[in-house]
Design a protein that fits this description.
The chain is mainly α and 242 residues long. 61% of the residues lie in helices and 0% in strands. Helix 3 runs antiparallel to helix 4, helix 7 runs antiparallel to helix 8 and helix 10 packs antiparallel against helix 11. The longest helix has 16 residues. The protein is elongated, with a radius of gyration of 21 Å.
Length: 242
Amino acid sequence: MPGVKLSIRVLCLAVCLGGAPVWAECPSPAADATAHFETCRNLAETGDAVAQRQLGTLYQRGAGVAPSDEMALTWYRKAAAQGDTGALYNLGVMYDSGYGVEQDPAAAARWYRKAADKGDAKAMYNLGLLYEYGLTGAQDYEEAMRLYQQAAELGEPWAQFALALLYDKGEGVERDPVRAYMWFDIVGERHEHAVHNRDSLGEELTAAQIEEALEMARQWRAQRPQLFGEQPAEAAASPVAP
C-alpha cells in the first residue's frame, strides 16, 4: 500500500474558544497578569458570562493566579449556565480529558452536544470523535460522519480531515478515494498530515480521477467563499451594507 494514511485523535484543547485572546473580553488597565486577572474576576462576579468563561481560562492556564482546574470548572459552569457556547465546549474538553474531574466521555458528549447544537464546529468534531471511536458506547460511524460533515461545512479543518479518512478507509460509508482526495485537498496546509495523505492517495488514482477530485474541491471552495476570506461577487457589488 503506497504511503501511510495518518490519523491522530486530537481534542482541540484551545480552551479559549473562537480564536480571540482572553485579553479582548477581560480588558485590563495594566499589562500585568495579576492585575488582568483581578479585572477579569471583578467583571465575572457581576455575572458577565463571557468574563466568567475567560476567568476559567485564566485559572486553567495559571495566568495571574495559581493554576486550578477545579476553579476553572467552577467558572465554566457559571458561564455555561447562561448558555455561553465556549464554556459549554470547554466543559466538554474538561470531562473528555479528565481536567479537574474524573475522565467521563459520556459527560463530555453531553457538553459537546450542547455546544454543537449552538453551532460550534469544534464541539461537533470532538463529539464525532467520541462516536467514531465508540467512547460512549458502540461505534457509530453514521453519526460521526454526520457531525464531521456539519463541522466541515463550517470550515473546521480537523473535521474535513476526518471525513477524508473515513472516505479513504471506507468506514461508515462506501470507500471513495476520489472524495477522500477532494477532502484532503480542501484541508491542505491547515492540517499537518493532509497534503501527505492526499499525495499518498494520489499514487492509487489515475490522472483523470485526480482531476475529478481537484475539480470537486474547486467547486466546493467556490460555493463557500466566506470560509476562505472572500466575498460573493453579488455581495461585493451591493451598495447595501451587510
